[in-house]
Design brief:
Layout (H helix, E strand, L loop, with lengths): L1 H15 L3 H24 L9 H13 L9 H27 L18 H19 L1 H12 L4 H8 L3 H22 L1
Length: about 190
């Protein structure tokens, strides 16, 4: 595992330096972790979600390839960005679904063809995003920490590495941020 981690970090550095072959060699090494992140994010979605795990990975991959200005320090930074991109994809998808429910694009369909959809998960994701934006205004570090832990699935140690703070501080901030978000979201509803 350690040699794989160092290979990933080395390939990320080469990719940052403009080596086009590095990306081709990198993707097979990171694909399973990207799928794991996507799968975990998709588990939080409705069971009848129209976006599948593979599509989420593919969309994230396309956006990651376009990240020319990103300077990845290591694999943890790369996975953190990938998780953030996947979160944004799901958030945009949720917003589109809610907009369509409110009449975004009308299309006549017979009642027999309609499958009941639950928009509750989409609303929850949007409420969480709004609360995270508010938290970012107040405390950007705690907001970023939530993104890394909740959406990225990073461990306390990995989050500490990305944020360059002590693991004990990450644990403390994680508890505070979760309590703050819980209170913020329940006040909105």
């Amino acid at each position: 595992m350690e040699s794989s981690s160092s290979n990933i970090t080395e390939l990320l550095i080469q990719w940052n330096d403009g080596n086009p072959n590095a990306l081709e060699n990198l993707m097979p090494l990171v694909e399973s972790e990207l799928r794991r992140i996507a799968h975990r994010l998709m588990r939080r979605e409705n069971h009848n979600h129209t976006l599948q795990t593979s599509a989420l990975v593919n969309e994230a991959y396309l956006k990651l390839v376009d990240q020319h200005s990103s300077n990845y320090r290591n694999r943890v930074h790369f996975y953190a960005l990938a998780a953030q991109i996947m979160r944004r994809i799901l958030l945009n998808h949720a917003r589109d679904r809610v907009a369509q429910k409110r009449g975004g694009s009308f299309e006549r369909v017979s009642l027999e063809a309609v499958e009941p959809l639950s928009f509750e998960k989409s609303r929850e994701l949007i409420a969480l995003d709004e609360a995270l934006k508010h938290l970012a205004e107040i405390d950007p570090v705690k907001s970023r920490l939530v993104e890394l832990r909740y959406f990225g699935g990073l461990t306390i140690e990995e989050t500490a590495e990305v944020l360059n703070i002590a693991p004990a501080t990450v644990s403390k901030y994680w508890q505070l941020a979760r309590a703050w978000l819980r209170r913020e979201i329940t006040q909105e509803n």
